[in-house]
Amino acid sequence: MKIKFLSFIASFFMVSFVITSCLDDDNNIEYSPDATIHAFELDTIGGYGVKYKFTIDQINGLIYNEDSLPVHADTIIDRILIKTLTTASGVVTMPNKEGSDSIININDSIDLTKYINAPDKNDYLKLKVWTQDLQSNKEYRLSVRVHYLDPDTLNWGNGRDEKPVAFKKSFSQGEITGKQKAVILNGNILVYFILNSELIAYKTMTSDGKTWEKVDNIQGLPTITSLELSSIIEYNGYLYMVAENQIYWSQDGKEWALHKLLNRNNLKFATLLTAIQPNPENTNNKKAGISAIASKDNGLTYNFCMTNENTNLWNIGEVLPADFPTRNISSTVGFSTTNVPFIVSMGTIIARDDNEEETPQPIIPWSSYDGLSWIDLSTSSSYCPMLNSPSIIAYNDDFYAFGDDFKVFYTSPSGITWKEASKKFYFPEDLTKRAGTNYSIVIDENQFIWIICSKDGTGSDEVWRGRLNKLGFDKK
């Protein structure tokens, strides 16, 4: 960059003249017409110690990194070395401060900050590769891609908006109160709750969250209690729920009907736990189905059960253990290292002393690969703290659990050993202020976490949406 291109050309031709004058006419020199960059690499980025591969698009003359640099790399690459720049001639130029072509010296550091995420091709760093005879050149445009956001931060709100995605306040029946259950069905979030002994639902598209529509005239269900709300689950494009110990289903969340096939064998259902969704790429996935707790003897004992692959018959499993949680149950589906789905459930266990005083116990997750036989995941280090109204979700290849205090997430890779999640995986302060409120949680197809809070003494109903930044990065 310190050597002007015109002076270089003059020097090059002088050397060429001396060499060719000493040669016979029979020893003509043939110069390579190759004016392409064969390899390009930057030095490791600051303290990250990572080499980022750059793609060379020869047809369009573009050089760019497919994997974006870390969010704070723009404070480092103002003094970065080009480690590799391979061409046939070895002559590459770039514009200097005066706009003239100047030879690149890869031993000099280059300031690339103004070429970060270049929005327009005119903002790219322009490189010219010259043929050996300097008669022609090929131009390349260099763009350095850097993440705008910390990939490991859970970002709440809409994009960079840190405010909650608020409910529309024009409910004809009033605001959401009391126990609730949110589910996702065919691209819509539905929130069910009970008001004046009537089942109420509102819905919004997962792409929205601000405009909510009331689901009028829910039909086909008997009277629903608040305890039965927690049994509502989605499976393979339908909603299922338990009402008066029987299973009902719906295709739209409004029109419900008794499921005749799933109510055979005189089973009395206590609740539905979760569903293992069928794999669309493998129609023979035998792990798909609905997990439930049901009684064969009119409530004297309860068993785990799981539908078969056709969802028309129940397989009956083990008797429900005495220490399996039966209050505030939350379930999710994770995947093993060999991509086998398994269920993890947690809930509240109450211990009674001699005076019949009730004391909540530490949270112990339970797990099952088939919905029929379950094991508790208790070890000396597996307990979560005593979470009130606990929720467990499978997210970013880990499990996360929290309670209605919205103070901290606890995380585990397998459901066995738990610890506090990174401070970057956090609840916003305004949501923490809603501690103790009734809430429900869903995760949509774009990996957004939705937390819906009911109206309570401290505020109105609210909707919060958050996503781990890296799950929203362009994967192209």
Task: Please give a structural write-up.
By secondary structure, the protein is mainly β. It has three helices and 34 strands. The protein has helices spanning 5-21, 226-229, 429-432; strands at 37-42, 54-57, 62-65, 82-87, 92-95, 101-103, 125-130, 137-143, 154-156, 180-185, 188-195, 198-205, 213-214, 233-235, 238-243, 246-250, 256-258, 268-276, 289-295, 303-307, 314-319, 327-335, 341-348, 350-352, 358-360, 366-368, 375-376, 391-395, 398-402, 410-412, 419-420, 439-443, 449-453, 462-468. The strands form nine sheets. A six-stranded mixed beta sheet has the order 2-3-8-7-5-6, with helices on one face. The longest helix is centred in the first third of the chain and has 17 residues, at 5-21.
Name the strands of the widest sheet in spatial order.
Answer: 2-3-8-7-5-6
Strand content: 35-45%
Measured as a percent range, the helix fraction is: under 10%
By DSSP (H or I, 4+ residues per run), the number of helices equals 3
Total strands: 34
Distance between the termini: 34 Å
Mean pLDDT: 83
Report the sheet with the most strands, covering strand number, pairing sense and barrel closure. Answer: 6 strands, mixed
